[in-house]
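To: structure subgroup
Subject: Chain for Friday's discussion

All,

I'm putting the inputs and outputs inline so they're searchable in the archive.
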Amino acid sequence: MGLNHLDFAIIALYLTGITLFGLRFRKKQRSLRDYFLAGRDIPWWAIALSIVAAETSTLTIISIPGLAYDTNLTFLQVVMGYVIGRVVISLLLLPHYFRGDLYTAYELIERRFGSGLRSLTAGLFLLTRAAAEGVRVYAVSIVVAIALGTGEVASIAIITALTVIYTFEGGLAAVIWTDVVQTAIYVGGTLVGLFTILHVVPGGWGAIHAAASAAGKLQLFNFSTSVSIPYTFWAGLIGGAIFTTASHGTDQLIVQRLLAARGQKQSVTALVSSGFAVLFQFALFLTVGIMLWAYYRVPSKTFGTPDRIYPTFIVSRMPHGISGLLIAAILAAAMSNLSAALNSLSSSAIMDFYARLRPHTDEKTKLRLSRLATIAWALVLFGLAIIALHKVGRVVEVGLQIASVAYGALLGVFLLGILTRRANQRGAMVGMGCGFAMELYLWLGTHVAWTWWVMIGTAVTFAIGWTTSAALPKEEGGVIS
């Protein structure tokens, strides 16, 4: 059926409206505190929705339905672990982040170990976050190319350019408040899509449930102990919890939002409530995938890759108007995630590197350079997305795998600083290097599922960092307080 003028009008209205809305915040950016932390004056519910938006992305909206189309509901076991991980962060890490005036997660590492390890952890964040975001930006091109027929490179360029405009001008405040709007759009759009699919499948939900149940599509728990299966009860609860402790407790993308809260209590409320919202979201996206399977009943390779199934259905089967709304919803998630990445990469580059090398630079100059860094990172992510065009399979898993490679090393270092007195900077660096090498090996040389990588990398980093520190001459330092 394809899109018509009404659909294109809705998409254009959304793109124009969200860009103009984000630009409303440009006059409030007078300092680095405003630009990178939104003046630490964001209510908890807005931060919660922003966290949800930051971890949702186009990968989630198009790839999770594709995952359910091919498999079942067992991915939800991992999301249950995500909720547990948030509680751990609230108890273990957030109290330390709210002692002092921190801009990035890695300032905490310098306070405990020294500037060398801060540079190493921040550098690892920049490297792996950029790589993971490149894959996410590529995922946008799948949708835009199917919907608009613009070609993948042009599609990436369009979304990147529009997103960088309001992120450049409005900083974190623009990112968070546009996230709130975009979350409402893509959740509402997905609900509309779900009910639309429900009406086009003969027999409705009764037929979908019967067919899906008979095919094992409604399986939620898998109690297998095999470490090569990514979505088991144990990998989900343990691996998912540790993955989230790392991703939301040591990754500047999320920590930056938590630091923008009006206080520690509001930050905890935002973080924990976002976990339950994400659980609902993933259940929604997985249900959409099962309903699409009940509608098509053909192998996913018929569409090229599983990631193309949902966008193809939207463009070819949805009524006009709803098609435009759903494409706008997917673009909302894409722009939300991209703006978050640009601002967090910029904040770490400026605060963890430039501001330390040039401590006497005036605030106005640093603010100007922060905006320029936003543009520079946009160009980097554009280039990485072009490289990612050659990736195949479910892009959500590629993105999670790239992120997992660094998280174990990062979390291991944070735990060394928080839980031990013996660990020192040199020992922690050795441990971090070994943990990162182990995760690379797990990724490239084994069949161990990605859901276990962070736990293994964290254990290796912590154990070797602690042992090496004990063998090296004692340095000044102690438990982070």
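Points worth raising on Friday:
The chain has a mean pLDDT of 88.
The CA atoms of residues 265 and 301 lie 48 Å apart.

D.
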